[in-house]
Amino acid sequence: MQKKKKALFLYLEPAGYVEACLKKTVQMFPVEAHVVRYPLDPNAPFKFEEIENVTYYDRTKYEGYKLDEMVAALQPDFIFCNGWIDKGYVNTTKKYAGKIPTILSFDNLWEGKLKQHIASVTAPFILPKIFSHCWVPGKPQVVYAKKLGFSDDKIKTGMYSANFELFDSMFKNTWPAKEKKFPRRFVFVGRYIEIKGIRELWQAFINVQTTTPNEWELWCIGKGPLDDEFPVHDKIKNIGFVQPKEFESYVEQTGVFMLPTYDEHWGVVVHEFAIAGYPLVLSTKAPAGTAFLQEGVNGFYHNPKDVKSIEDVLKKIMQLSDTELVKMGLHSHELSKCMTPDTWATTVWKFLNNE
């Protein structure tokens, strides 16, 4: 039997979809996954299940030299470092540079800010000496990776993947009913915070219903500081936080996904609802759209922080027939297949084998 390779993942706050990727990795390949992470965000309290060959460690219990001791005892064959914010993670990884594959992951976009320009001058002399490769979500992050000193052959994409099997099962279970009668309900899924653009979404939807009343509804799934501002409206529904595995009844009852964010690094939730067969309505600040949204084919973009722009795309969707909405949803599902936990696991395995 082939000896299992040890993959160490140094995470900040991994979300639920990471679990699906880790699970697939240890199922497909002879790998042990060891995951250091911080306590979970109370606004997104995902429940992680116990998975054979996946071990979790509480970052708060491994401060300073304790992290180094744990990693030394583990003797990993690969280290994945989630960004550069945690200096302890970076310093630990540095000790293994040149000895094993050391992977820097990040989802930051190149925005041309002064801080980024400074980093682009200094980082090429530092980061490639610590990290053998860079793993980012998609094309928008590749620009930054190059400016940080990584060559094309050292950069891989697909660092994020939704739980494909979970949302694909929801697609298969709910699609027959949607083909017969498409649910005329928009759905927002995310934290109720200002940056997600949810205030503008509420206002735009209310404006459209005021000027041109119709059967469409808006359902919101999540929780957060703006809970207290949730509008009282007979066509806007507050579902609250829902674990991903409990989404199916809501997938069955809603039809078009919306993410009006005005600052997003990627947006895995876009992938999740593309898999589930949703037409997509995204702000231009949702980078996941570069992989999963083709304007006018399976959805529409709107400008961030722009109530009138959101109103316009809401009206576009509302004017579509069930047949057109079904066609859009099927196209989203096809686009969603470009990234999966299988492709994620395969990338980890290639890193482990220096391929």
Description:
There is one protein chain. The two termini are 22 Å apart. The model has no long low-confidence stretch (mean pLDDT 93). Helix 1 (16-28) crosses helix 14, helix 7 packs antiparallel against helix 13 and helix 8 (198-211) crosses helix 12. Strands 3-2-1-4-5-6-7 form a seven-stranded parallel β-sheet, with helices on both faces. The protein has a six-stranded parallel β-sheet with strand order 10-9-8-11-12-13, with helices on both faces. The longest helix has 17 residues, at 164-180. It has helices at residues 16-28, 65-74, 87-94, 114-122, 127-130, 139-147, 164-180, 198-211, 248-253, 268-275, 289-292, 307-318, 322-335, 341-352, and strands at residues 5-10, 31-37, 54-58, 78-82, 102-105, 133-135, 155-156, 185-189, 217-221, 236-238, 256-259, 280-283, 299-302. It has two domains: 5-161 and 339-352, Rossmann fold; 164-338, Rossmann fold (3-Layer(aba) Sandwich). With 355 residues, it is α/β, with parallel strands linked by helices. The chain has 14 helices and 13 strands. 39% of the residues lie in helices and 16% in strands.
List the helices and strands and how they pair.
Elements: E1 5-10, H1 16-28, E2 31-37, E3 54-58, H2 65-74, E4 78-82, H3 87-94, E5 102-105, H4 114-122, H5 127-130, E6 133-135, H6 139-147, E7 155-156, H7 164-180, E8 185-189, H8 198-211, E9 217-221, E10 236-238, H9 248-253, E11 256-259, H10 268-275, E12 280-283, H11 289-292, E13 299-302, H12 307-318, H13 322-335, H14 341-352
